[in-house]
Design a protein that fits this description.
Elements (H helix, E strand, L loop, with lengths): L1 E7 L18 E8 L7 E10 L2 E4 L3 E3 L8 H7 L5 H16 L1
Antiparallel strand pairs: 1-2, 2-3, 3-4, 3-5
């Protein structure tokens, strides 16, 4: 399991090379990624709402279709193959990057 806090922003609102944390349209999120020896990886994300000292989470969004490359060493240790969908995702991202 990996749990972390990060920033997100709409892609169309970002200037060239601007990170979501630098965007005035940013939102703070709590994210968790989980894997096990069997089954598909799970990504969970919820918006963090702050009101002074009061912090709450928005609705949790769950995704099971992402490519979790950070867990590849676990898959190897467990004797699991990297899912073809992860490779396909990587190829699609690289193709879009080449197009600019």
């Amino acid at each position: 399991m990996i749990v972390g806090e990060s920033w997100m922003a709409p892609a169309e609102s970002l200037r060239a090379y601007e990170r979501p944390a630098e965007s005035p349209k940013r939102a703070e999120v709590l994210a968790a990624s989980l894997v096990n020896k069997t089954g598909d990886p799970i990504d969970c994300m919820a918006l963090i709402h702050r009101n002074g000292d009061v912090v709450s989470l928005g609705e949790t969004v769950i995704n099971t279709s992402g490519a979790q490359f950070e867990f590849a060493p676990f898959y190897r240790a467990w004797g699991r193959s990297i899912p073809p969908s992860w490779i396909d995702t990587s190829k699609a991202v690289m193709a879009r990057a080449r197009r600019g």
